[in-house]
Amino acid sequence: MTIEDLQTLCHQLPGVTEDIKWDHHLCFNVGGKMFLITSPDEVPPTASFKATPEQFEQLIGQPGFAPASHLARYHWVHLDDVARLNPTRWAQLIRESYRLVVEKLPLKVRKQLGA
């Protein structure tokens, strides 16, 4: 997997936008809230995403995963190399992160997204 592959997966979801934050992090957002943060300039490229509390505990016990700096208290997970996961697993994790963020958006925004 590459950052471009992650972009493709993210843009398959309704209402996704992307922007650059903190000078070099490519962030994917829905309703103005982040659900995936990537570091395309790092070698290898890395990514962080939101998870359920259960997923968080499970994932951080696996090689390459760690609590995301500054966001772990919100159950964000950091992956040290986006190529560690196959497209199917990435699609699952991205959809789940997206869903968790959409759940917290105002009703009006969720309706606009069709959620």
Automatic annotation (TrEMBL):
InterPro entries reported for this sequence: YjbR, YjbR-like_sf, YjbR/MT2646/Rv2570-like
Coiled coil: none
Entries under SUPFAM superfamilies matching the protein: YjbR-like
Gene3D superfamilies recorded: 3.90.1150.30
Stated name of the protein: MmcQ/YjbR family DNA-binding protein
Source organism (scientific name): Hymenobacter jeollabukensis
Taxonomy of the source species: Bacteria, Pseudomonadati, Bacteroidota, Cytophagia, Cytophagales
